[in-house]
Amino acid sequence: MKQQDKNRIKDRIKEKVSLLPSEPGVYQFFDVSNKIIYIGKAKDLKKRVATYFFANNDRNVKLQVMVNKICDIQHIITPSESDALLLENNMIKQYQPRYNVLLKDDKTFPWICVKNENFPKIYLTRRKQNDGSRYFGPYTSVSMVKMLIELIRQIYPIRTCRLLLTPEKIAKGNYSVCLDFHIGNCKGPCKGLQSEAEYMELVEQAVDIINGNVGSVMKLLRKRMKIASQKRNFEEAQSLKEKLNKLKQYQSKSIIVNPSINNVDVMSFILDGNTAYSNFMRVVKGSIIQSYSIEVRLGIEEDRESLLSMMMMEIKQRLNTELSNKIVVPFIPDIAFDKVTYIIPQKGDKMKLLRFSEKNVNAYRFERLKQMERIDPEKHIERILNTLQYDLNLKSMPRRIECFDNSNIQGTNPVAACVVFVNAKPSKKEYRHFNIKTVEGPDDFASMKEIVYRRYSRLLKEGAPLPQLIVIDGGKGQLNAAVQSLKKLDLLDKIPVLGLAKRLEEIYFHNDNIPLHLNKNSETLKVLMHIRDEAHRFGITFHRTKRSANFIKSELRTIKGIGEITANNLMLKFKTVSAIKQASQQELIDTVGKRAAELIRSYFNARNSKNES
What we know:
Blueprint: H1 3-19, E1 25-30, E2 36-42, H2 45-54, H3 61-69, E3 72-77, H4 81-95, E4 102-103, E5 111-114, E6 122-125, E7 134-136, H5 142-155, H6 167-172, H7 179-182, H8 196-210, H9 214-230, H10 234-254, E8 264-272, E9 275-284, E10 287-297, H11 304-318, E11 326-328, E12 341-343, H12 348-375, H13 377-392, E13 400-409, E14 412-422, E15 425-426, E16 432-435, H14 444-462, E17 469-473, H15 476-488, E18 497-501, E19 506-509, E20 512-516, H16 523-557, H17 564-574, H18 577-582, H19 585-592, H20 594-612
Helix pairs in contact: 1-2, 9-10, 12-13, 14-15, 16-17, 19-20
């Protein structure tokens, strides 16, 4: 596109922005081919859209790229901000703009269907249709759905056949009873042995159980059991008692908090790199009757408040339900829904519910990540590397990461380790140990400076590949020492380097005094901690080996007539003092000669005699 055309488009956009109303609504950005590339909502259309063109967007490269592609703007005014959220959600799903949140589909989740028919069946389905039937769900657990349906069938004689039970066909006697009738699981509505009114009463009781209103059903069963007992109909009373016991067992599994908590929704939320997850739970009389988790891929500039609002609206639409008047949340969303009060619990039963929801969403996230890793390992690796790049604001994807750690205990045997991760996984064949050569005493900063310089001066000399990220185990002090060496090698502007302080898991950058704190569930933090812990383990192992070798050498040097060369030869051959003691005389002679072998044998014999006495 010519510069003249670009200037004309820019002027037209500025004019459109100036004419936008200061009202709630939805805005759409179009590219040069008249394709929608972004859809957003706003409390004030004019102020919100103006921020894209007149604010400083240099910090977000992806946002700036999108802004440069905008060739036209359209908007829709809505009565309220919540209406704008609903419209935005629907339009995003319809047009799937490139720079918007990507909502994951829910086609595989199961529902409970109460069929729209005479004598309706109750069954599990994965297809929600617009056929007038009642659908409950979706559920994230198939076993939960099966347990509910099995419970209903144990308590109520609901038919399972596929017969079309119209009054006309029943009157004609077209059907005959099946095995379910003979074993007591059905009362034979196909033969007119059960009225539709009686059947529908059972169906509504079953629906109450699905909705979590177990208490009202139990109350009804107790009343009928009492009447049956008074009439001395003990078989019916026993049958009702068994149904009550089944309901009690189900209720004991589902109640996790105070039963007085009624008609409350719970929304948890976790943000992991460029993906957000949320779990929705509906609580009725202390029972969780619904649990549903969703995942969204972030667009260009969503914050957690707007994401949570969008997820609430998405769940409202997917479940075809109204939100409860009280919603337990970890933080306040940016949209206020009519007649809805947000609750941020600090303790008590509502806090337990929020923690339980968080546990569910973390399990869902873990399951999604494992599923992605199994189906497409390469895509899983790309996602992790993209998350690292995004969270750490790196210019390039960190396919190769190297981490350094110093090890010394009470100032003895100072050593260091360098571990290498390629595509977020350990590359153990490339791990390296370092003996500290130029530093006297326990000086971690000077040791770090030495090993970083030695490592990268050698890589430069050999023309070996350099990492896209260097991680230093430690805080500002160790990081600054590494920075000095990188600056000396003219690599500081070429390789990003950070320090990971263990106490609070703070991430330090050399040009920023304020550390970066990532969420403890962040995948980026977990990868960095894995690298740091691996460097620490590798360094400690080498340090222990070196201390053990020095101990052996020092003990051997106490033997009169044994010099350093002889001690080194013994250590290389036998590794431990115990192995030297147990070696045969010929093995010792073959290793250090006859005279030295006699001195060693005399020393250990004398020490054994002293210990025995």
